[in-house]
């Protein structure tokens, strides 16, 4: 009930509620076989009380001696008007009014609101829900005003309510709400953030609220990840892992969902730090857990990071599979990362030289004309038609949606090489001899790049022929003339790499 409602109406509702509870209690006791209500509830015209006319059937032993008329006050005892004691309810209404009046001042008169919330806490005879709500609003208001010391003082008082004054579910909801509120500006108040979370975790340990303790640590872990504090992350991750283990130190499969949440944030850290060895171990562990029913967002994170890991190892088909699974999980969770994973799926498909268009599938088809995806749709269309000029034009004109993504940018050269390879193979097919300058013009790349590409294709046995460097020609069909030279160059290149690695290891 909000402020401004007529006081008489409040009292009327309170009285009706009290009378209803009284009748329910009497009915449950079953003391009498039957009770008849001979009157109705109505407002007393002379005051604020609610009067009820009630009739009780007298015990059988007194029925014969009871006069038929009601001439005395004693006779009226069971027919009188009864008034309930509404003092506690009135006090609750006053506290509730005070709370909503104070809340109404938050935007226009912050100081008045703070004073009002303090009054709510003072009005409660013992710690209860309205005081908890008032302290929650006080914490948020102090934070907005930049008065962090007062905020933390109020927050500590609020945390004393979670043991018994409010339900566990409600306290968890409020604490989560405040954590999200404060965490929104983590970079601006690093010290405050640390103090805030330490205070919360200590209170949750004392209250033995393991579930919220776990989720709070996960939130803190995510904050450290976002600002690159990996050392702090590792410390918290150890505690989280420990909470998901049995006494013998092995993972407790009964806590599979919690384990996957820990793995997800840890996998993100190893993806960011490019620690592929650790990443692969955790990725395999995560996929091996079958007992959990995790949130699809968690599986989306694990699959996306797995896809990036496979891309780094140039395992394009495995990467495409993971990105597709990540897309489906994010889509189920309603998470916007689905668009990014769809881009990565298109990238992996082109790198594996697949002729299958991922947008032909029913899962991805609805996103085909999404503004973020449209550039990738056009890109794969140009790729499948081997239109290299159009392909490069799309890359240049969609720099924001394609080239500005660091992950995609890492593989653009591989992608261009693939497209140029397809165009080159198609271009030389009718010829036994073809000039390198002509190929350079058709591919729109320097001659030295054409020569490197030709050498690579000859070594991979995709072109049967050799290069005449004097006449700047590719001669097809007589591979033996150039093969020995290319093999020797390749061997020389391998030996130089090995020598460089040996020298580097000794120096560093």
TrEMBL record:
Residues 74-87 have a biased composition (Acidic residues). It comes from the Eukaryota. It is found in: Cytoplasm; Nucleus. InterPro entries: 26S_Proteasome/COP9_Components, COPS2_C, PCI_dom, WH_DNA-bd_sf. Residues 50-87 are annotated as: Disordered. One of its GO terms (cellular component) is cytoplasm. Keywords: Cytoplasm, Nucleus, Signalosome. Its main location: cytoplasm. Residues 312-481 form the PCI domain. SMART domains: PAM, PINT. The keyword Coiled coil does not apply. Belongs to the CSN2 family. This is COP9 signalosome complex subunit 2. It comes from Cucumis melo var. makuwa (Oriental melon).
């Amino acid at each position: 009930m909000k402020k401004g409602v007529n006081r008489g109406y409040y009292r009327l509702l309170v009285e009706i509620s009290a009378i209803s509870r009284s009748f329910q209690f009497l009915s449950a006791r079953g003391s009498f076989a039957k009770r008849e209500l001979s009157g109705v509830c109505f407002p007393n015209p002379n005051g604020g009380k609610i009067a009820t006319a009630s009739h009780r059937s007298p015990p059988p032993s007194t029925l014969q001696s009871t006069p038929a008329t009601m001439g005395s006050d004693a006779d009226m005892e069971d027919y009188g008007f009864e008034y309930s004691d509404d003092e506690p309810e009135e006090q609750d209404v006053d506290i509730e009014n005070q709370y909503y009046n104070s809340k109404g001042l938050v935007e226009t008169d912050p100081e008045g609101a703070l004073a009002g919330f303090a009054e709510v806490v003072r009005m409660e005879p013992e710690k209860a829900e309205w005081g908890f709500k008032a302290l929650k609003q006080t914490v948020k208001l102090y934070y907005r005003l930049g008065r962090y010391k007062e905020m933390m003082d109020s927050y500590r008082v609020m945390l004393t309510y979670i043991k018994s004054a409010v339900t566990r579910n409600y306290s968890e909801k409020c604490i989560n709400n405040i954590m999200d509120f404060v965490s929104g500006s983590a970079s601006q108040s690093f010290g405050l953030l640390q103090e805030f979370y330490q205070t919360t975790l200590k209170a949750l340990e004392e209250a033995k609220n393991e579930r919220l303790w776990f989720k709070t640590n996960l939130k803190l872990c995510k904050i450290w990840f976002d600002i690159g504090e990996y050392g702090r992350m590792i410390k918290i991750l150890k505690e989280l892992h420990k909470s998901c283990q049995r006494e013998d130190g092995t993972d407790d499969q009964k806590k599979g969902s919690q384990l996957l949440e820990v793995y997800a944030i840890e996998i993100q850290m190893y993806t960011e730090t490019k620690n592929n060895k650790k990443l692969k171990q955790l990725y395999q562990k995560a996929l091996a857990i079958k007992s959990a029913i995790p949130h699809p967002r968690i599986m989306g994170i694990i699959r996306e990071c797995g896809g990036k890991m496979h891309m780094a190892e140039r395992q394009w088909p495995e990467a495409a599979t993971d990105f597709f699974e990540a897309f489906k999980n994010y889509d189920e969770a309603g998470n916007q990362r689905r668009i990014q994973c769809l881009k990565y799926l298109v990238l992996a498909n082109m790198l594996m030289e697949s002729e299958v268009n991922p947008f032909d599938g029913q899962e991805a088809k609805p996103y085909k004309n999404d503004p973020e995806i449209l550039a990738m749709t056009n890109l794969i269309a140009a790729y499948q038609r081997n239109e290299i000029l159009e392909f490069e034009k799309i890359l240049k004109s969609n720099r924001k949606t394609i080239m500005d993504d660091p992950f995609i940018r890492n593989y653009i050269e591989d992608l261009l090489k693939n497209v140029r390879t397809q165009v080159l193979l198609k271009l030389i097919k009718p010829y036994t001899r073809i000039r390198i300058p002509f190929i350079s013009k058709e591919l729109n790349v320097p001659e030295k790049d054409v020569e490197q590409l030709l050498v690579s294709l000859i070594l991979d046995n995709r072109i049967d022929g050799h290069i005449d460097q004097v006449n700047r020609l590719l001669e097809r069909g007589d591979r033996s003339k150039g093969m020995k030279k290319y093999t020797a160059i390749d061997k020389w290149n391998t030996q130089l790499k090995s020598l460089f690695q040996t020298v580097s290891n000794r120096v560093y």
